[in-house]
Amino acid sequence: MLDNLILLTKVPVLNIQLLLDGLFIGAIFVLAAYGLALVWGVMNVKNLAQGEFVIMGGYFAWHLSTYGIHPILGMPIVCAIMFVFGWLLYITIIKWVITRDLFTSLLATFGIALVVQQALNLAYGPEVRTAASGFTTRSFFNGMVTIAEIKFVSFLLCIVLAAVVIIFMKRSRMGQAIRATAQDARAARVMGIDTERVYAFTYALNAAICGAAGVLISMIWVIQPFYGVVHSIRAFVIVTAAGLGNLPGVIIAGLGLGVAEQYSGFVLGAQFQQATVVGLLVVVLVWRQIQLSRHRQVVE
Amino acid sequence: MISLEVKNVSKSYGGVVANSNVSLEVPEGSITGLIGPNGSGKTTLFNSIVGFHPIDSGSIAFEGQEISRFRVQQIARLGLLRTFQQTRIYDKMNCVENLLISVPHRNEGLRNMFGSYSSGLIDKAEHLLEFVGLYQKRHLISGDLSFGQQKLLEFAMALMNEPKVLLLDEPTAGINPTLINGLIDRLKRANSEFGITLFVIEHNMRVIMNLAKSIYCLAHGELLVHGTPDEIQNDQRVIDAYLGAH
Amino acid sequence: MRSDQTPWWVYVLLLVGGIIAPLVFPAYTTQIAFLWLMILFALTWDLVGGQMGYNSLGNIFFFGAGMYISAVVQIGMFTDVGTYTSARGGEQLVLGYWDYFSSMFVGSIAAALGCVIFAIILGWVMFGLRGPYFAIGTLGIALSARELAGTWEWIGGGSGIAMPVYPGYPDEKSLVFYALIFVLAILTFICVRWLYSTRFALAINAIRDDEVKAEAMGIHTWRHKTFAWAVSAFFLGISGALFGNLTGFVEPLEVAFPTITFGIFMVVMSLLGGKGTLWGPVIGATVFHIVKEVTWTYLLGWQWVALGLLIIINVVFFQQGIMGWMQQKWPERFGVRVDKRMSKEAREGST
Fold first, then answer.
1. Does residue C349 fall inside a structural domain?
2. One domain for residues B6 and B63
3. Which pLDDT tens digit goes with each residue over A34-43?
4. A299 inside domain
């Protein structure tokens, strides 16, 4: 462990590798976290199935790639499927938990997560998979730093996707309705906004965003039916650390988490990477609580 | 003797000044009123007193003891209790249980956690429920009661706690006008029979003029005027504040 | 306060049933032992989740922690833990009756105390979190414990620890462990039933209904919350110790910290039976376990999907649970009624 730290200081170029890998993967985390923040902020549902949506999107992309459709070209299809899936989930389940206490929505989405995991396991088996992207890997600094082109492409796609979503939220009628509902659902209803539709759309949009993130994950990393939990926890870590409705915070926390994971994986060993994520969750929650306890009273 | 003394208390939320340099005194055994237009900082002051949030500056003393750095529970255990504007009760428990758990928690040791309830305590709870007129409904789940009844239940819970000073945040809001007279009577009896000092926020002028001997008026977070009901009623500044001339 | 109105014959029936069940159905001894374990899970979860409103998704942590503590203590009594685990199960402790049971006893006590200490430390941190943050935070604790146990070589890492071998026949072992788990479940029930008859129960119910109000009324909320969690941890710790010995092999993913099986079963069983009631968790655990055992093998790989669907249906459409449904249907049976009298002194009918 100490050896690895010393290696990092002796060979500074390795830092570039870790940083870049962290940023490339972190950008995808930002997407999933943004979806979570959206659903959380607009309809106050803490979606524990977030990671499963990501993995689901990844499997669909992988499935399409077996028919010879390149994952990047398959992305719109995957997003469309996930959008419909999200909408269906909303009208069958989420609709009923939205007004109930928060634990209900948490547990209901946990149930969804369980069903999705197991269904994926039955459909695709427990093997770890990666969708072939056909890009090559380039080396720099005499091979000290290697960057898969696909990672860079996926980073660019992340930026494009995020920009599309942000412009959509700012400009389109639906986007404005979503933001109005997030601020005050009752007022929005009085002003004639169909909040039911807004909620359904928000949840479906979240599923689509996660689906897109999953497509990217399937190309630059690995997917497996049970890897969703960690993605959910990542999204929670990012949103909790950044705070709701804080888009720059989500971006910074997401990229930071990506980098932190790369570093901990390198320094502590790959088997600690998941433990780091979960440990960070506890740390972020505790940190949040210490912040609150500076006040005389614990605020909800 | 002064029971509660607030000196130069200021509190602001991110630039919005809710209280600025407020000083007031609540004498022991009195009924003191606090009025002011909406948004004048009355509830903020209450929250500062009972420890819901830290104050920016100033001091709050209860029976001579500085409490501005205490937490909510410590202050409640000293015997300084508040009710809420949006009534708060334990809504999945019945009325008797709501009262039984509201016993004073002063000097409570670990062993008290596991005591059972003496019949004397149950008698007391039922007596207080009778006092506020909820005896018939004492076995109903309190969340099923009407808003006015919940308000009365919250008042009974506060009495069960045997506070020395009780801060009431709009006790008559949402209560049927015909019941208000009965409530005024009960508040007065709580003051005279149980010896509880009352500090009351109230919007209903008829109620507060009838109830309090001494009234403070806040406007824009600052103390505007202090006086007897008659003085307050005839004070041009108070009238201006309510009519928005400020 | 809310004294338990259950007729005495229910208890007699349960006790007799529990004692003769393994004798009548010897082939199902372990399954019935699991039923008692499930009842214990549901009861301990409901104490914190149902009665106090702190919905934990990570109570399974105490089960696994207890299991590991007892394993380390039991093995440490006879040999060096580090060298024992580095053999990766190639070596197993063979003990006589006295050594086996005395070490298991010591291990269980250590597990219980260790879990209580864990509960106090974790409670100090976690009880600042409210609502969904508490649920996610506790889930995080269970998951990180599982990850850490998997990487900690001294306790065997991912390949686990082999527990001491039971000195007698397998049939005898399952009967002995049946008895131990049965007694532990009964003790848990008695403890919880007693707690619900004291003012402790009203205090934690008050915390559930409105913690801000409870604080404003001066209730010692932190003390009550920590104690409730510690009781829960105490029994879960012992149950973990017993379970580890029954399985004979402690491993982080499937045995010690089975977050999505036992960890979620606890919640589902309490909800199914009706959370916040004394009998709800017992009924929920019984129904859940029997239905699960009967249908599991017929579902052919679809069990987990069915379980997820059950959680969703349970949470979304039947959240009040069996007991809650009964209380809604017959409120008078549960003492919810209007008194005709206006006051204590007035006679019935004179309104």
1. no
2. yes
3. 999 999 888 8
4. no
With respect to residue A241, please indicate whether it lies within any of the assigned structural domains. yes
Tell me how many domains chain B contains: 2
**Domain contains C136:** yes
Q: Which of C55, C151, C301 sits opposite A103 (nearest CB)?
A: C55
By C-alpha distance, which of C65, C92, C122 is closest to C252? Answer: C65
Same domain as B167, residue B155: no
Q: What is the radius of gyration, based on Cα positions, of chain B?
A: 18
For residue C129, give the nearest of A102, A108, A289 by CB distance. Answer: A289
| Whole-number Å distance between alpha carbons of A57 and A212 | 7
B84 lies in some domain: no
Are residues B221 and B41 in contact, defined by beta-carbon separation less than 8 angstroms?
Answer: yes
In a domain, B204, yes or no: yes
CATH number of the domain within which B193 lies: 3.40.50.300
> Is B72's CB within 8 Å of A295's CB?
no
| Domain with A33 in it | 2-293
Q: What is the pLDDT of residues A142-198, one digit of tens each?
A: 777 788 888 888 899 999 998 999 899 889 999 999 888 888 888 888 888 888 999
- Residue A89 near residue A112, CB atoms below 8 Å: yes
Highest mean pLDDT among A261-265, B183-187, C115-119, C196-200: C115-119
Closest residue in B to C341 (Cα) is B136
ipTM of the complex: 0.89
B241 in the same domain as B184: yes
- Taking only the tens place, the pLDDT of each residue in B198-238 is 999 988 888 888 888 899 998 888 888 898 888 888 888 88
B9 touches C at CB < 8 Å: no
Mark whether B155 and B57 lie in a shared domain.
Answer: no
B vs C: CB pairs below 8 A? 119
Residue of chain A minimizing CA distance to B49: A296
Q: What are the residue ranges of helices labelled H in C81-167?
A: 81-86, 97-126, 131-151
Nearest-Cα residue of chain C relative to residue B79: C218
Which residue in B53, B73, B91 has the most chain A C-beta atoms within 10 A of its own C-beta, making it the best mutation to test that interface?
B53
State the pLDDT at residue A300: 32
Q: Could you write out the DSSP letters of every residue in C139-155?
A: HHHHHHHHHHHHH-GGG
Picking from A250, A275, A193, the residue whose alpha carbon sits closest to that of residue A31 is A250
For chain C, the residue count is: 351
User: Which of residues B160, B192, B220 is at a domain's end?
Assistant: B160
Range of the domain at B243: 1-79+163-246
Across A81-91, average pLDDT = 95
CA dist C91 and A44 (Å) reads: 53
Residue C351: what pLDDT? 40
All residue ranges of chain C with pLDDT < 70 are 1-4, 88-90, 342-351
| pLDDT tens digit sequence for C139-158 | 888 988 888 888 888 888 88
